[in-house]
Amino acid sequence: MVHAGYYGRDVLVTWLNLFPMPNFADMAAHLAAQDLIWVMGGSSANLLALWRMHKLVEPLRRCWERGVVLAGVSAGSLCWHVGGTTDSFGPDLQAITDALAFLPYSNSVHYDGEAQRRPVYHRLIGEGVLPAGYATDNGVGLHYQGTEMVEAVTEVTGKGAYIVERQSDGEVHETRIEPRVLPGAR
Question: Is there a catalytic annotation at residue 168?
Fold first, then answer.
């Protein structure tokens, strides 16, 4: 699916498989040669476990530190943060608190697409299980420079991003971030 967006362009797209076995003998070197690493959605817990098993966390950190763009959707967004809300453990959303933490915030995706997301995210931040963080409606992405979130972008008009923080009185406050609408948005 991601490959199709680059057909006919002067872009070399590769795919790192971990099933049934890695398709590159030196996965760290392969990752280091990329300009962009895109991670698809799926199970955040399983994704993180596989990366740890294959010793990819430090190679990914080195890529990020040297400016390789790290991106993704759903689990591919949550993984770069401290943690967030996940359905990796079953149909009821739970916290995952041991993501890669390249970004010192929590993350909640599918904010407008699943009724549980907003209240569970608010509760987890309010209880101190997760730190303050960013939530995104479906079709919205976050753009960071280093660890600073600089803008939200969307491919779907009317969608939003949110910063969600615990206030000094213990209440959780959500502030909408109006995303920049990308060309060709629907």
Answer: no
Boundaries of every domain in the chain: 3-181
Mean predicted confidence (pLDDT) in 34-58: 96
Give pTM, 2 decimals: 0.93
Q: Looking at residue 66, what is its pLDDT? A: 96
Average pLDDT over residues 93-120: 97
**CA 130 to each of CA 35, 48, 94: distance values in angstroms, whole numbers, following the listed order:** 31, 17, 11
Percent of the chain with pLDDT over 90: 90
Q: Which of 44, 74, 106, 108 is catalytic?
A: 74
What is 3-181's CATH superfamily?
Class I glutamine amidotransferase (GATase) domain (3.40.50.880)
Q: Which candidate in 88, 106, 110, 122 is catalytic?
A: 110
| Cα–Cα distance list, 173 to 126, 129, 131 (Å) | 9, 16, 13
81 as an active site residue: the answer is no
